[in-house]
Specification:
Strand content: 15-25%
Largest sheet: 7 strands, mixed
Structural class: alpha/beta
Number of domains: 2
Strand order of the largest sheet: 12-11-7-10-9-8-13
CATH class of the largest domain: Alpha Beta
Number of strands: 13
Helix content: 40-55%
Order of helices and strands: HEHEHEHEHEHEHEHHEEEEEHHEH
Radius of gyration: 19 Å
């Protein structure tokens, strides 16, 4: 294990050749899109410093959106010249940095347990299927000194970043975000697809949410978060159609934008992270974001009552303690 950490540090420090990236989980279209962006012959900026060279297919047999896609996407990567290996240890021998791409959040913790050897790891959305697993991942990352972060592409969407930096709005006092909403029974409701909209909220608001409430209907689910400083954010999960819309309220005014600008900004952030080893999204923020999402589920169970995010974190920590996980 120590040898793996040392080899990662040496390859990161030379800068003579692009960092070799490995993919874990070939069951999402992201693996194709990200590889095309990173390995493009005309790649510039941070993408020029990274090359995807190896992949481990993985896959979840009990999840059709994984089982039906892992084979075709694996073969497409093979056709792009990516070496396919049969285990995570074999992958680690051939790469300096890792893209954990499994579409199913459930295996992320067990996969990260194998990947936590000191090499930078990006964890695609959802970071895990629930808050307890997210906390366990970041505890292990800290213990093993493995730099990692998780994000949706919506955090870096141009519509969101422009609103966040718009001087005409002033300091953001609240926001309203709408995005597509689909659920998967093995995940907390918002983690499967609602996470895109929640990422946008946190990009605009930063952490600090103390309580969450949720109401549900046949066409949408509406989640409201109250920040400790009095600010309010709302997320509307659209069940009937897919679109992205963002309204920011500020001390000077308000503004609206919509749409998704593609994966390039996120991939640039990932490649910059691989080079610097500095996570652009702190672990505490991702943990709070999952507490927000778990509180939304709990609110429905309590007839739309306000639910504390701290309560959700305390409950998740207790779940880990019951499983024998110890705080480090």
């Amino acid at each position: 294990m120590a040898a793996l950490v040392l080899s990662a540090d040496l390859s990161l420090s030379t800068g003579a050749e692009p960092l070799r990236a490995g993919i874990v989980g070939c069951d999402t279209s992201h693996v194709i899109a990200f590889t095309k962006l990173i390995n493009a012959s005309d790649a510039t900026g941070p993408r020029a410093n990274v090359e995807v060279v190896v992949a481990y297919p993985g896959g979840s047999p009990d999840l059709p959106t994984s089982a039906d896609r892992v084979g075709p996407y694996t073969e497409e990567l093979r056709g792009m010249g990516i070496e396919i290996v049969d285990s995570i240890p074999a992958l680690l021998e051939k790469c300096d940095v890792v893209l954990l791409e499994s579409v199913d959040g459930r295996p992320h913790l067990s996969q990260f347990e194998q990947l936590a050897v000191g090499k930078p790891v990006f964890i695609d959305k959802p970071a895990a299927a629930n808050l307890a697993d997210v906390i366990a991942i970041f505890r292990l990352a800290e213990k093993t000194k493995t730099p990692c972060f998780s994000s949706s592409g919506l955090r870096y969407c141009s519509a969101v970043t422009k609103l966040a930096a718009d001087p005409a709005i002033g300091d953001i006092t609240g926001c309203s975000v709408a995005s597509p909403f689909e659920t998967e029974p093995h995940h907390i409701d918002l983690a499967w697809y609602g996470v895109h909209g929640v990422e946008a909220i946190y990009a605009l608001m930063s952490p600090g949410c103390e309580a969450v409430s949720r109401v549900n209907s046949s066409t949408a689910t509406l989640v409201t978060g109250r920040w400790a400083d009095g600010r309010i954010a709302a997320w509307r999960g659209l069940k009937d159609y897919g679109d992205y819309a963002f309204t920011a309220f500020g001390a000077k005014g308000m503004a609206f934008d919509r749409g998704f600008s593609g994966y390039e900004p996120l991939v640039d952030e990932i490649c910059t992270f691989f080079t610097t080893r500095n996570p652009p999204v702190p672990a505490a923020e991702t943990i709070e974001m999952f507490a927000f999402m778990e509180a939304a589920d709990e609110s429905l169970r309590r007839d739309s009552a306000l639910v504390s995010t701290k309560e959700m974190i305390t409950r998740a920590e207790q779940q880990l303690a019951d499983k024998g996980q110890k705080k480090d």
